[in-house]
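Hi Prof. W.,

I finally got the ROK family protein prediction working! I wasn't sure whether to trim anything, so I left the full sequence exactly as given:
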Amino acid sequence: MKKAIGIDIGGTKIAAAIVSETGEILKKTEVKSDPSDREKMFTRVIEAVNQVLLDTTYNISDMEGIGVGVPGKVDRERGIAVFQNNLPWPQFPLMARIREQFGLQRITIDNDVYMAAFAEWIAAKGKNDETFVYVTISTGISCSIIHNGTFLRGAGFAGELGLIPVFSKVTNTLKRLEEVSAGPGIEKFAQKQLQLANLSAKDVFERYKSMEGKYQPIIDEVTDNWAQGIYSISSLLDPHQVVFGGSVIAHNPFLLEIIVEKLKSYQIPEQNHLLSNMSISTMMQNNGVIGAGLRVFEGN
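And this is what came out:
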């Protein structure tokens, strides 16, 4: 059985897993990020790899390679983390540093959402003659497109769904989708509307599920914003499948039904095939490390 290490790097934590060529996680670990300094951050990556191998029968030499998902813009060919909002790694030569540290030649790096999308596409048995979209809704909002078995990357920044402006029926303004309807945006909006300090996005969804009526307008606003964003995907790409992931929606699967109902008001009949082809990831927070590990086996 071939194995690889998949790494999913974020501003708050780094997840690492030993992944089989069939996408099974054999072991997973997490360590805290340290974005205060570029070298301290890289040291945490090393710690994550060493920790995931600890107390196993595997050595680094048993791995086919290492796949790494990084936020922001990535130069895949040169293996450089180009730009991130939440890491101290502008123009950081991540591939070369990992290769130097662990001695493995096969190192694959890509944007973290693309890595997660690859895992979801494999799990959904995506077809090479179809268009597949993965949408993540968490502390940020983004998407990745796989068309005819290949990522659609544009000039390198395609899939930034969170940058699309949406119209708020509550505030009568245009705002970027991520600003108003990712996790932090939901918290800010709910706190302002309900005049409640320290209200988290998790609180909003739990209290809504507990039938607290004052949270209904918050859910209506947020899901309507998402529906506007999804409709832009529907109109531009007409995808065959859309899979949603990220902590906000993966932990609240009831939201999908609301999104579908909202989307119905935007779609024309020729677009309605999408309504029955949207789903929520069953991998929860593991799709990033699984996808990173599986990308190592591409071409093998």
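The first helix runs from residue 38 to 53. Does that look reasonable to you?

Thanks,
D.
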